[in-house]
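Example complex used in Figure S2.
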Amino acid sequence: MDKKELQNLLEQVAGGQVKPEDALLQIKTEPYKEMGFAKLDTHRGIRQGMAEVIYGAGKTKEQILKIAQAMVEEREKTVLITRMSKEAAEYVGASLDLHYDDLSRTGIVGQIPKPDGVGKIVVATGGTSDMPVAEEAALTAQVYGNEVVRLYDVGVAGMHRLMDHIEDIMSARVIVAIAGMEGALASVIGGMADCPVIAVPTSVGYGANFGGLSALLSMLNSCASGISVVNIDNGFGAGYLASMINHLEGRKE
Amino acid sequence: MDKKELQNLLEQVAGGQVKPEDALLQIKTEPYKEMGFAKLDTHRGIRQGMAEVIYGAGKTKEQILKIAQAMVEEREKTVLITRMSKEAAEYVGASLDLHYDDLSRTGIVGQIPKPDGVGKIVVATGGTSDMPVAEEAALTAQVYGNEVVRLYDVGVAGMHRLMDHIEDIMSARVIVAIAGMEGALASVIGGMADCPVIAVPTSVGYGANFGGLSALLSMLNSCASGISVVNIDNGFGAGYLASMINHLEGRKE
Amino acid sequence: MDKKELQNLLEQVAGGQVKPEDALLQIKTEPYKEMGFAKLDTHRGIRQGMAEVIYGAGKTKEQILKIAQAMVEEREKTVLITRMSKEAAEYVGASLDLHYDDLSRTGIVGQIPKPDGVGKIVVATGGTSDMPVAEEAALTAQVYGNEVVRLYDVGVAGMHRLMDHIEDIMSARVIVAIAGMEGALASVIGGMADCPVIAVPTSVGYGANFGGLSALLSMLNSCASGISVVNIDNGFGAGYLASMINHLEGRKE
Amino acid sequence: MDKKELQNLLEQVAGGQVKPEDALLQIKTEPYKEMGFAKLDTHRGIRQGMAEVIYGAGKTKEQILKIAQAMVEEREKTVLITRMSKEAAEYVGASLDLHYDDLSRTGIVGQIPKPDGVGKIVVATGGTSDMPVAEEAALTAQVYGNEVVRLYDVGVAGMHRLMDHIEDIMSARVIVAIAGMEGALASVIGGMADCPVIAVPTSVGYGANFGGLSALLSMLNSCASGISVVNIDNGFGAGYLASMINHLEGRKE
Amino acid sequence: MDKKELQNLLEQVAGGQVKPEDALLQIKTEPYKEMGFAKLDTHRGIRQGMAEVIYGAGKTKEQILKIAQAMVEEREKTVLITRMSKEAAEYVGASLDLHYDDLSRTGIVGQIPKPDGVGKIVVATGGTSDMPVAEEAALTAQVYGNEVVRLYDVGVAGMHRLMDHIEDIMSARVIVAIAGMEGALASVIGGMADCPVIAVPTSVGYGANFGGLSALLSMLNSCASGISVVNIDNGFGAGYLASMINHLEGRKE
Amino acid sequence: MDKKELQNLLEQVAGGQVKPEDALLQIKTEPYKEMGFAKLDTHRGIRQGMAEVIYGAGKTKEQILKIAQAMVEEREKTVLITRMSKEAAEYVGASLDLHYDDLSRTGIVGQIPKPDGVGKIVVATGGTSDMPVAEEAALTAQVYGNEVVRLYDVGVAGMHRLMDHIEDIMSARVIVAIAGMEGALASVIGGMADCPVIAVPTSVGYGANFGGLSALLSMLNSCASGISVVNIDNGFGAGYLASMINHLEGRKE
Amino acid sequence: MDKKELQNLLEQVAGGQVKPEDALLQIKTEPYKEMGFAKLDTHRGIRQGMAEVIYGAGKTKEQILKIAQAMVEEREKTVLITRMSKEAAEYVGASLDLHYDDLSRTGIVGQIPKPDGVGKIVVATGGTSDMPVAEEAALTAQVYGNEVVRLYDVGVAGMHRLMDHIEDIMSARVIVAIAGMEGALASVIGGMADCPVIAVPTSVGYGANFGGLSALLSMLNSCASGISVVNIDNGFGAGYLASMINHLEGRKE
Amino acid sequence: MDKKELQNLLEQVAGGQVKPEDALLQIKTEPYKEMGFAKLDTHRGIRQGMAEVIYGAGKTKEQILKIAQAMVEEREKTVLITRMSKEAAEYVGASLDLHYDDLSRTGIVGQIPKPDGVGKIVVATGGTSDMPVAEEAALTAQVYGNEVVRLYDVGVAGMHRLMDHIEDIMSARVIVAIAGMEGALASVIGGMADCPVIAVPTSVGYGANFGGLSALLSMLNSCASGISVVNIDNGFGAGYLASMINHLEGRKE
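Predicted assembly (2024 residues):
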């Protein structure tokens, strides 16, 4: 409500066309209404670039199919479905052209787009058991248009394997480092790379890992720089953020 | 010797201006740590771009002065000193040209460089008491060559203040969102912006905030996308990562 | 025998319609627990206004039916059954006129009374997965005689949806704000509304939400005023308290 | 300009006593934050009814004085200053008419207004050591225009003392129950009263109370109904919410 | 061989009824564990007074039967089996005279002995859902020869019910107070009684009770005196300790 | 209010001598009032046997003196003051005949009474640093009339020292086992003794003892029988409970 | 790259045989590559002495068989498979010569080698329910060539049983002490033995053991010397480390 | 008491020389007494090899001097004093020949013995701020007769520095790996070395390191083999255990 509109309103009050209490409500709520919200909500309907996403956990297979069909009809884009049960995949796959990844329980309706990011995203894991989270991150990044280099099972207990891929690490634009247990991979990669590192703690492990807490704390306390952390097992969040960073354009000249 | 300097040296060798044996000496006298490893360790001696950094906590004023002097003499770059006591600042300031910021306890020796990042970094806080952490982040970003927009005290309990700055939020290249207590600022900003958001939980608050745990968990669980989290009160880490992202160049054509 | 019934009885004694010895018998046959103690214990047998409640968790279907039948026979009031399994609902429904809500696993025997509260209760959720808890709160409020406005999936990651309902927020007498993950909804609503806000953390989420702890701490640390918190997933408690506040009468003139 | 003042202004416009252009000027000179946003942010500048509040923690005595003076000059209302050190009180008291309460470290500039709430607020504590938090709650409630009944040291280890005040409990409109250690007071009061109970855990105790965690968890898990909880030691928040509930008007006929 | 049996044996040696070498054999064939160490280990083979106990959790039905048969044959005493599945009960019941309590999953082989304790043990619970733990405690106490008074569902949310049994509380020799959720029952009883109170937190509840932690902390922090706490859900431990206290004899004159 | 009194009241209502609303209030509040509370509150004014107790923590020296003087004048009994600073001791000692124990910061006004318990109380500690808590327990027990045997520094890392006192352990009527760090002492003693063992975890230690949590959890999980636990560092509570058990009389013949 | 190689490289740059940018890459990545990593990663393919190990958890039976077959073919060594389900054991056993231990869910393909360690490894447990973890440790140690002495169910609640085996304790070269609940066994053994003690907390227990946390903290805080701790339930890790210590050779003369 | 002694005792009972009750006592207490405890308690009086140790924390300077003098007089060995304040060092140094290390607050009376261990102990730290704990470990190891190689500030954020010392890592007999923050050093070293690694988490760091918890959990969850963990900041314990392992002799031929 700009100065003029406010003046009009007040004159309508003075003229009796608008009641004071109605004007009161209008003035009180106006500022909120005029906010220009830029972005829709995540993980339930992101629509950036070319992909839509459905967070499958807690949804019935019928709900997933219905939402996916609506998205497909409306916009003909790729639809990413995370945390989707095998049963739901079979159900949805009967009606739509679905590619389903067992390991990460991720479904993709439509084509994975041609990569259009600036560089490459490296997705690295400490162990093989971190792969489900890694694939969720990698597929998310691919669906959002990124070239992804997978470095799996390169944890610090066998660091030579990580070293074999030093060029990938050194030439990445952004790295997603995924590890459970002691989560040291993020620090080690952060100590070598000079690009942003997104650390994903996983709940892989047992005993004093307390559902991923050990890796989470380890990553938050990393003494290497350029590292930030997302929620435990949040492969989607890491893949999405990595894509966002990989699509940042340079200076306009 | 950073990557660029090493490249220059090698080109001078190729061009005959520098003899191999002299280059050898130069490389070897800064063994390993100067050999082009992308990065030294954080918070104790990063040397990317034009700045050096000293992590002041746990160091005596004499130690800080000595390290700073060595850095200044050797390379004549800007030196950033974080977590520096007022007493140390006075001691160092007697010998070196130090600018000291009381609030964040940050010292800077030398000139803050002209910004050379791609866009602007917004540093936002929920309340005035988060400002010490915010200034550590903002000064770090400035020292690494970034233009910084400060939006302080724009927490969700008075969201109209945040809305007054919606253009800053929408046009940032990267945002550092700093909040204690319930840490909701990161989610709200993450729900509006479409650039990477680095969330910094602070230990500000009392009772069930448990030294920053409430804000930390809140930020990790944010349902907005594009958010990642650094350690509680880690303004430096956020500023450094923001600078790294803000200096990412676009595609080479 | 509730407060009102006891008062009626005593007035009938005073008026001569009921003999003291008959009143004595009536009072004594419901020893202590029926004697006007303001309230029986919660979640197992509240009898305020017109509703009875049975906390279904941990009870067999036979127990639930038996208790419900006794309540129905004795007083012919509405009976609310929370945390009731589908199996129990089918069993009870065979003998009694039961309305069962799958989502919140809440059963209602008898009619939902006509609202007699002072204003409206807004029940808002951050996401769709918070709806089971929200429906428990909303149905509880309805059974206790309140008009309920449901605002579901208005979380901070898509704040425009919340803004679309700003009039509901601004005109509510009491708001129940339900959210899992980072629990920011309570703070955002608390920052806009000027009525009491009852925050309900939910266990929705994964990883570092630690069964609802993240939302709980976030809500307890809210820097907005007028907010208080109930137990994780405690929709009943929030609906009951909201009803209590909504039935507070104004000053007697 | 609070809600009531804005309403008055609009009615004067409607009635012709104030010209629209003058009203426009008045509204615009207090841009946004004075425009009827239901509420400013808590603990740093609430202006509902007749009081202003300054959250003293983390502010210098000079800052407190300056803010208080601005408030006093501008509006001549009562100013409440919470978490104020004795030293700050002496400094502010030299320039302003300050009443300072040592126990709760609360300062009040100006007169405590005549109570205008609907009923009485009972503030009860488990022990004498909970009194600082209780006085913060009680003084907050008084400053916002409430009649307060103090029941201190009525904890469950000596329940006869609580019983001596059963009439106060039964006739309260809202109760603030404050306790450290095992926090049982809230449940016991909640089991007796039939009005809303705001529970405040305190950090009083030692050993396994873990800074108030024991009382917090106890209160959140209370099996009595009508109870909600605020942050540990948050007397202000409880007093403010109690006042809000106590000022709720009844139905408009 | 308990202390008494060893004494008898030695007296028979002294009196010539038993030859030293026979006594030697008898003592040595039950090496160490039978030699008068006051007590064997708990929950797996206590033999005080007249009962044996088998901790059923983690044992197969075959193992339980085998151990129970050995105990029965050898000594013809009562055998208590805790945490015994229904299936195991049916299996054991086919071979031995077993009384099985469904609620607490406790089995008893043989007769419950006539009470020979000094006074009565009161076992009180906050709610009906604490009854499984309570029955484990009560049956344990009975098997060890105690008269038990059960006061179930007398929690603080409906304190009148507790009050109906004030004489039982006041005349008990030792009280076992069992409660989940906020665990206030122990404090309230501890504030009334002047005998030892053994508090048993239960894992009953949901949300922020964190598997019994809320009740545990509450009980440990009780400000009433004469209270001590055993592990969460440890009905056996409480019943055993209560029996031990109830069998303490007075001074010998 | 018994049947007769209620009948009288109702007849007075019928006769018009008592108004229905007055009768209502009388009936509602009576049951609470008629409770015969047996005991005053702990740690602030216990008056069992011959001692009074003042919990010194959080009280000024003037308050302590005033309370102590009132107690002395009124009843001429022994007064126990726990958690009393040296400064307060000097202040109180100037006016009253005070014995002050530096180690446990316990003060005693008046004579320690002649022991009149049934047996002996053993107070055992794992290390010398647990002695402050132990002395609080031991002095409390002595003040309440018990003979105390002190076994200090008999922790499991040097078990021979514990073994040297096996007779004391075997002949105690009740044992207070005090230990920090791993808290194993309680289990070891519980495995040897056949009397009640009250375990007191202490906050002694560093690192992962987390303020006594390690010893607390260890003691709660003890697999020995007859053990119960009080709060961390709660020497008073243990001494009081031990005295209560030691004064239990045997059967009356 | 030693001094000479670097000199050569630089001369090749000077001579034009190597381009500066190639030299740059070679210098940057070389140091990592030349590391002589000594050991592969644990629990997924250790190859020290004569055994291979497969961590079975999270692997399908087909994967386990395939890995095991490859190992057997390649090297003809013993293969240890930990955390292997019964179902997987049956599947693998159909193709390979597998010995499967039900209790610890450990499979062994091939012969257990003749012990070649320096001394004996004692594996002791507090209770019978700790035996699965103990057998994992013991079988691991045997597979790596150690003589193992099993002392099961020697917990502190019945310490005489531990004492029966004092000679084993005193003559061990290294002891693995395994206990759940209060974890006191490690301290007691550590107080008696003068060899390294590896403590393994187990998740055995209930209530406040919090999945092994109680035993873990207890063991970390042990006041006995020579003790170190591995992860909860990590029998393999303890057995492996014990073997490593037991194979340390003495001084070479 | 062996078989023969027991036989003698029984014959004395038979012969009347020993009363049955005396025999009873003798039999009951004997087994505990005859234990040959091998070792005194740690950290308060270890006497293995040539050194004595005093744990200085919580002891007055006078106590420390007195204990140290007694040790020196009695045995003329080296005395190690850990956690000793500077003030205490000055006081003790006035009477005894004390070497005091400021950094680790460790004092040594007498000569550090000539190393007599089998190999070398490497003490490595992640950062310079871990050095106090490292020096406690290193000096402890030296006092017990070990050759120590110090590798300080070789954390994973600058791994080249660790690589410079790969030979030390590879040739150590036992390694003490000390790190705060994310504690990754232990895993990285554990992944390279093939000797036992003792990990020491330190409380160095801030925010979500929670007093060392992050490093502790990280180390416990290490996926490298051969690692075990001691308490946070427990340099002494690590040094002692390292010495124990380094003094293990090889097989006797």
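The first helix of chain D runs from residue 3 to 15. The interface with chain A takes residues 3, 6-7, 10-11, 13-14, 16, 19-21, 23-24, 27-28, 32, 35-38 of chain D (CB under 8 Å).
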